[in-house]
Amino acid sequence: MALLVKQEHGMANATTRTAVTRDLIGLVAIIVVAGIGYLLFPNNLALLTRIIAIAFLVLSLDLVTGFCGIATLGHAALFGAGAYAAGMASVHFGINEPITMVMVGLIAGAVAGLISGAVVLRAHGLPQLVLSIALIHLFHELANKASSWTGGSDGLSGITPDPLLGMFEFDLWGRTAYVFGVVLLLIVFAVLTRVVRSPFGMLCRGIKEDPIRIRAMGGAVQSTLLRMYIISGAVAGIGGALNAISTQVVGLDSLSFTLSAESLVMLVLGGTGSLYGGLIGTVVFMWFEDLVSAANPFHWLTMVGALLILVVLFAPRGLYGSAAAYFTRRGERR
Amino acid sequence: MKRYIMAAIAALALSSAAYADTIKVGVIGPFSGPFALQGKNFKAGIDAYIAVNGNKVGDHEVEVIYRDVPQPDPAQSKALAQELVIKEGVQYLAGFYFTPDAMAATPLLKQANVPMVIMNAATSAIVTKSPYVVRTSFTTWQTSTPIAQVARDKGIGKVISVVSDYGPGVDAENAFKAAFETAGGSVVEAIRIPLATNDFSPIMQRIKDSGAEAVFAFLPSGPTTLGFVKAYNENGLKEAGVQFLAPGDLTQESDLPALGEAATGILTTFHYAVSHDSPENKAFVEAASKAIGNPAELSFPSVGAYDGMHVIYKMIEATGGEQDAEKAVEAVKGLSWQSPRGPVTIDPESRHLTQNIYLREVAKGDDGKYYNKEIQTFENQGDPGLTAGK
Amino acid sequence: MQTVFSVAVDALAYGMVLFVISIGLSVTMGLMRVVNLAHGAFAMIGGYIASYAVRDLGLGYAAAVLIAVFGTVLIAIPIERLLYRRIYGSPELTQVLMTIGITFCIIGIANYVFGPTLKTIPLPAELQGSVDLGFRSIATHRIFAIACGLAVALGLWYLIERTGFGVKLRAAVDDAAMAAALGVRTDVVYAVSFAIGIGLAAFGGVVGAELLPVEPYYALRYMVTFLVVVSVGGAGSIPGALLACLVLGGIDTTGRYLWPEFGEFFFYAAVIAIICVFPRGLAGRAR
């Protein structure tokens, strides 16, 4: 373990400058894209905010799937926990301060991550996938049963967040929610770039590549993965809280298998194992879905299916992964 | 300062919409996915209304914009409603098959100055969420209450209630229980089963064991209802004479070809049957069948959509095409007309329809097709769900 | 006591129907290592073909089953050539993306071609009605489904364990390169076993249609059920899948009889418990 960490420190030092530059470029890119989105679609900020909220979920999924190699089709449990916690804080406890609501979502997401991790890490491969499916159904049923708290299948409505910092109201046009979402995303992204490059992040990657070797080197596989699961839960919980604040309603769909599967599709579409892949996958998938479902609300599913097939055929590592690989190859050739 | 700028932008956006010649109506519904059939019926009802009455109210052309929310998804519904209002500049929001989707959009109405016409979502409380909500469908309380009287009239004293464990199911259970117990019957057992149930044999065993004379059921239409009705037959409950009672969602016309013989004898109460005998309905069915393509797919959401369009046309008439949600809603309060389902009135208090509820029995017609045969009328039924205090 | 028997019969019937519908997935997923989420889509195609054959062409039930199985395989061949071949050996997540894409497309096309209503497959007179077991009656088609399940289980077991093809298949699964070097035409073996998997999906779709009715959303609605059953059994194991179906069918049916309100809890709690005890599925092989 010590050896590994030392080695990583050496590696980290050598590449720190380029890595920091790259992260800065990444953050600037997010700001630029967010700004362009604001200018190009000023009338569609609700969709853009929703994309950001889902981006948290996909980033969070990337942490466990892309960096730790855990297969899960139940990740919406973490997102939904955050959404319901933030919503219930507002509806039942009168906590309407948006930043506090996000913190509540973060904590609830982390707790859900702990529970999910404790169950899902008990198997590998396909059985692991099925554990996660069982888990999301249990979460869903629980929320449905506790309808006096969650509103059941009618949804939890009556969430009334206060103006942000006492100044900016969450209104019809959704500007406040959008800017709030972008700022949250920047903060989380900056933190995550550090996390994945830290010795801890490297250890997770190592476990993904070869858990037996890591164990032989004295690394605590289960507890490391569980810690990553908790971090992942916190990230998803922030997304859930953002969703609850911006839409002011939480439905059972936020704890559904469908949302879990969709987030996995978005992640794989963008490319696993890189934070950028998660972001790009979310933006492309949701933007494409909005485009085709508005163009033909009746038969758009076929188009989405075709997109997924085309991506597998022509960009098997996902959009970002394949593009990155292409440029690396070109770079090497030179 | 910020607020003034926003107000200015809002005024600009709204005024430009108000004087435009085209009036846009945004319709949100399930147009793909597991409930695509119901969304298709929305569109058929809207198309039928436009086919019969033209797409113009005075000088104003009406344009309908559809947005798809395949499954209950309040966040998505709200985002789309926002998009419709701000980007597309719709003056009316309509559709809404699921209660949570409608609930999610109600907080927008006041700020957006847009009325909402609900064409299906059947939970009583939605109309209380905003004064700009008008509903042209039914509520589960409204359609589930009369069946209790029917059961008592047939001399049934003990009933077991079986519903799917979600909002409408729970509503139906409560409505039936309240009405049946008031009428002097007893609900011996009330079972709520998970939505995702494939095999109903164990439930049938429960019904048998309960010793009830009849079963009251509410499940989502489609595969779930089909499975339940089949199991009811195969496990000998029909032979044993256990009467099947339900609100009419279960025997919607589009499911009858699949249900077939198994459904005959089921008693339901509902606001609309495609077979309803009136000149208005004949004209409606003809237009809607043409709009939907395959007449066998026609069922109740189409009539909610048809009447919804009627209300929207009246609103446009009253406001002269200007965007004024309050005036629009005020104008249709107390409005009465002959709907394809019979005479209806918008109750000025609740903004929900007062309408006839019919007792129907699934029967085989002379042409060999199954239909809901209306055998009794409960006139001018309001919505008991609101006073029941949920 | 009578109730216990009665519930047991229901459990057996439900478990066997699950088995018939899911076993094709166990073949593609366990033997070919393809996470085929489009399994339900192929079962649905089988159901649609059979429904069309009986209702519109007026063919008999047996003929409809045959046409459905071969028709579905025929439809699947170009899909295998063009799409599946590209994902053999790919990471699981890539396979998930591809097969979900295929499922979306098939749902969209089915909705467009057949419309969103339920389609039934009328049963022949022999399979209608019910059989008296003495203490209760059971629908004849359920007995038929049980028989089909047993026949499929026996047939597959014989094919895999006792025939030359089975030897080649097992060799190709365990070490494709070595098998190829020893002269096994692995591409042919793969193509044939893919066809078997799809044919079984279609067969299950038709036989199970009484319980899981055919409509466009079928392909996604039951995907989780299929995946759970196969994984709990241990992908690729015929006895494992059979055992899983009977155990899960039993738990599901009993749970729904005793505590219908918590039916879902029971089923998924049982799934978690089983996988925690048998992390590779009931009959999973160590790899």
TrEMBL record, chain B:
Name of the protein in question: ABC transporter substrate-binding protein
Occurrences of domain Leucine-binding protein (ranges): 22-365
Signal peptide: 1-20
UniProt KW keywords: Amino-acid transport, Signal, Transport
Family as reported in the entry's similarity comment: Belongs to the leucine-binding protein family.
Any Gene Ontology biological process: amino acid transport
From TrEMBL, chain C:
Cell membrane found in the keyword field: yes
CC per GO annotation: plasma membrane
Location(s) in or outside the cell: Cell membrane
Keyword check for Membrane: yes
Any one biological process term the GO annotation gives: amino acid transport
Assigned keywords, A-Z: Amino-acid transport, Cell membrane, Membrane, Transmembrane, Transmembrane helix, Transport
Gene Ontology MF: a single term: transmembrane transporter activity
InterPro entries: ABC_transp_permease, BCAA_transport_permease
TM segment ranges: 6-27, 34-54, 60-84, 96-114, 143-160, 188-207, 265-283
Membrane topology of this protein: Multi-pass membrane protein
Domain of life: Bacteria
Pfam families linked: BPD_transp_2 (PF02653)
Family: Belongs to the binding-protein-dependent transport system permease family. LivHM subfamily.
Protein name per Swiss-Prot or TrEMBL: Branched-chain amino acid ABC transporter permease
Source organism per UniProt: Ferirhizobium litorale
